[in-house]
Design brief:
Shape: globular
Number of helices: 5
Number of domains: 3
Oligomer: single chain
């Protein structure tokens, strides 16, 4: 017998018992392990290079092709354009988003940089100006490369977000943050051509759904740690003031004990980006691009000027060039500086904020400290190699989305859905209660004293977004994320 349930408001609120994750971080997809120069077998606990990205498995990327030109991310609840079309200006993108009806939806928008970065996969690789493997799942998403016939590089496949840099880059250029799914970097790109003043054109991938994604919910725990209830991650409040090469940074993170916890680790690139605050920059607020609850050690830039903040290592690799395993990802919480010769061939080198605070670039994992900082690449990126680290751990007081504790004994389909979904419970499991919670943790459906093993729940009257299905049984509890389109 199938039981069909319509909306029933629950008397109790589940917020008192746990907090729902509204900003789940999608894993980077990295499964290989690396030393400073090559792929290696998985390091054992306590050995060199233990704790890097592939050591820890997060919310694995999962997508659904809706068959209408849209792709739903089953982790974030965001729905995306499959194909972007040609490069357009930002103002044209605003009009495009406002008038799009793709998939019979009219609530499309330009994504924030945090929404856009959720699609990044660090299994990608480039070779200088040439594309090799994209930094996005091309099974689901179309990602063009640059048009070399008109003078572009293959890596000119940058995708813009809606996040403007609050300061200026280069010598006074307005910038919008974007991610390059061909070369794996996040930078602020000039909104207008510095030469002509005409609007620049880049790709845009429109998004809809889960407007809570990318919004932090920080709480100072008063013990040297900060919890982000939106992501379910706990952070070191203050870096330790020291800089490390990548191997030693991994070791530091694995051996830290703070606030009674010893399961700290180095964050992967996408976890680290989640705590960047793109409304802050040193040039505007005289502070690093992070929530003021945190602190960053100030440094002097290569010219000896104060007011700069260092780079912070991630555990993620960045594969580029003839030595693809030599670099790892970092984030700039201070200005993303570079030394540029302006005008070209003038001999006049200037240290500038070339990519904006909050940019993601990469450094060699190791090197002689006497040789750094140096400058590298078309914009002369400052490379320190010895960078800071801010450790992270998973919290236990937050209900993670898709905790499949009962495995295949519980099946939920279809998911995503726009009308209803069905929960099928095996004969070996005795359910006692099922609750459907909204993004605020409020129970909006409840079924108790269950005798049926096949239950359908109507969600046709619910707004699109992420919901949490809490399945309570005598054999234990199970949680599943439900995406309502």
């Amino acid at each position: 017998m199938k039981l069909f349930i319509t909306t029933v408001f629950c008397i109790s609120l589940s917020l008192n018992s746990y907090s729902q994750i509204t900003y789940p971080i999608v894993d980077t997809g990295v499964t290989d392990f690396y030393n400073n120069t090559s792929i290696i077998s998985k390091p054992s606990i306590g050995n060199a290079f233990y704790g890097q990205d592939a050591t820890y498995s997060g919310n694995q990327p999962s997508y659904t092709n809706n068959g209408d030109g849209t792709i739903t991310d089953n982790v974030t609840g965001l729905t995306w354009q499959k194909s972007m079309g040609s490069k357009i200006s930002y103002s044209d993108a605003v009009v495009k988003a406002d008038t799009m009806t793709l998939g019979d939806h009219s609530d499309w928008r330009i994504p924030t940089i945090k929404e856009l970065y959720s699609l990044a996969l660090f299994t990608g690789r480039c070779f200088g100006n040439f594309a090799v493997n994209k930094f996005i799942d091309t099974t689901y998403f179309d990602q063009p490369i640059g048009d070399v016939t008109i003078g572009e590089r293959e890596i000119d496949g940058q995708v813009w977000s809606n996040t403007h840099y609050v300061d200026l880059i280069m010598r006074g250029d307005t910038a919008i943050f974007g991610y390059n799914f061909v070369d794996g970097r996040l930078k602020g790109y000039p909104k207008y051509s510095p030469m002509s003043g005409a609007p620049n054109k880049l790709y845009f991938r429109m998004v809809r759904g889960n407007t809570s994604y990318g919004v932090n919910d920080f709480a100072d725990n008063g013990d040297g740690t900060i919890t982000d209830n939106a992501t379910g991650l706990m952070w070191q409040k203050t870096d330790d003031g020291n800089t490390y090469n990548w191997q030693n940074a991994l070791s530091y993170a694995e051996n830290v004990t703070l606030a009674g916890y010893s399961d700290w680790r180095m964050p992967n690139a996408k976890e680290l980006q989640s705590i960047v605050d793109y409304t802050i920059s040193p040039g505007i607020t005289s502070s690093p691009a992070i929530n003021p609850l945190f602190s960053c050690t100030p440094i002097k830039d290569p010219n000896g000027n104060s007011g700069q903040y260092g780079y912070f290592w991630s555990s993620s690799p960045l594969q580029d060039g003839p030595l693809p395993y030599s670099d790892a990802v970092y984030f700039c919480f201070g200005k993303a500086q570079g030394q540029m010769e302006l005008p070209p061939n003038s001999g006049n080198f200037q240290l500038l904020d070339v990519h904006g605070a909050g940019a993601q670039r990469n450094d060699p994992k190791t090197g002689n400290s006497a040789n750094y900082p140096d400058y590298f690449g078309p914009q002369g990126d400052v490379r320190y190699v010895y960078n800071f680290i801010r450790c992270v751990r998973n919290t236990s007081n937050t209900t993670s989305i898709n905790q499949h504790r009962l495995g295949d004994n519980i099946r939920v389909y279809p998911n995503p859905t726009s009308k209803s979904f069905t929960v099928i419970i095996s004969q070996d499991i005795t359910p006692t209660k099922i609750e459907l919670l909204d993004e605020q943790g409020k129970c909006i459906h409840s079924v108790v004293a269950l005798n049926d093993k096949e239950i359908s729940i109507d969600v046709s009257n619910l707004p699109s977004g992420i919901y949490l299905l809490d399945i309570q049984t005598k054999q234990g509890n199970d949680t599943r994320k439900i995406v309502v389109q």
